[in-house]
Design brief:
This protein is α/β, with parallel strands linked by helices. 33% of the residues lie in helices and 25% in strands. This is FkbH-like protein.
Length: 347
């Protein structure tokens, strides 16, 4: 094992090598390769837990894909990188294509050179020896606390995203014109019991569009959902290609004169859909209707600059600090309407 499994966050995507890792043998040298014992079960377990999987292999792409199809495993792997480039480049390409942080990836490979090359270029990537494959389902970083409906459907959501991207590449108009063809519906509702496990998952998994980086447990979120002094909102998105699942979370502490937005987060998967400010503007509208001031806590770091831009674009200005947190406030004079191509439903 090249890196410790005691890392701060969960693995979102496991990247597989092929030769002598996923299967026994070298595809371009041996007359036949065989699937390694236990590999198929590990792949299925991770898929059910909502952990994405991809491939970084130095191989002939068409031949390797045909072999995966013979094993019945092709559909499990998103954006496979089967080429002769360095593994570090392949891993980076996977993270970029899936729009997740590269330090949420793990690589499993039988070659120590390949693991060390990736670890040198991307120290945050967890690098595992192929001999550790049977241990993967037991490792904490591959074991989410809850498995939600969104978890089980995560791969299909990404496949839907690939269809959207393909449709956008073929579309001849502007970005807004294309978004108008998607028939998007954005839903905002107070969190119910069925939402709380997904809310915890969002809190733990989302770090690029997380206003404070704070993670909340299921028990804490359940307390907020039941508290008259708090408002816990969840947001979902769907379009003609299918559901994105629950993609946003807002936690508001409701004081008599000031509401404080303790947490605002949005899944990175919807960054390109122009919906990043919809939940925030909804909360701003609720505060204005309640006749209170609205402040937001924000912890600046190298990951969440986009969230800071979201606040500033919505008219928030810094009015003070609380420990490491910046306190931002909006005068609520300028609240944006949702984009014309988006239907918003609240309840």
């Amino acid at each position: 094992m090249t890196a410790s499994v005691d890392r701060p966050g969960p693995v979102k995507c496991l990247v597989w090598d092929l030769d002598d890792t996923l299967w026994d043998g070298v595809l371009l040298e041996d007359r036949e390769v065989t699937l390694r014992p236990g590999v198929a079960e590990v792949i299925r377990v991770l898929d059910e837990r909502g952990i994405l999987q991809s491939i970084a292999s130095k191989n002939h792409s068409e031949t390797a894909i045909e072999q995966l199809e013979r094993f019945g495993l092709r559909d499990y792997f998103l954006v496979p990188q089967i080429c002769w480039s360095p593994k570090s480049e392949s891993v980076a390409a996977i993270a970029e294509s899936l729009n997740i942080g590269i330090d949420t990836l793990a690589l499993i490979d039988d070659q120590s050179f390949e693991r060390e090359e990736v670890a040198f270029s991307h120290p945050g990537v967890l690098c595992l020896d192929a001999g550790d494959v049977s241990r993967i389902p037991e490792m904490p970083v591959f074991t989410p606390r809850f498995v939600t409906d969104d978890s089980r459907n995560r791969r299909s959501m990404y496949l839907g995203a690939e269809l959207r991207d393909a449709a956008e590449r073929e579309f001849g108009g502007t970005s807004d014109d294309f978004l108008a063809t998607l028939d998007m519906t954005f839903t905002i509702s107070t969190a119910g019991e069925a939402d709380l496990r997904r809310a915890e998952e969002l809190s733990v998994r989302t770090n690029q569009l997380n206003s404070t980086g704070i993670t909340y447990s299921y028990e804490e979120l359940r307390g907020f959902a039941r508290s008259p002094g708090h408002l816990l909102l969840v947001a979902g998105l769907e379009d003609r290609f299918g559901s994105y699942g629950k993609i946003g979370l807002g936690l508001v502490e409701r004081g008599a004169e000031i509401w404080t937005l303790k947490l605002l987060l949005m899944s990175c998967r919807v960054m390109s859909r122009g919906v990043g400010t919809v939940l925030l503007n909804h909360i701003m509208r609720l505060a204005r209707e309640a006749g209170v001031r609205l402040q937001a806590e924000f912890l600046p770091n190298d990951r969440n600059r986009v969230m800071f831009v979201t606040y500033r674009f919505a008219g928030f200005q810094e009015v003070g600090t609380r420990g490491d947190l910046q306190i931002l406030e909006s005068d609520l004079s300028r609240i944006q309407d949702p984009p014309a191509y988006l239907t918003v439903r609240t309840g």
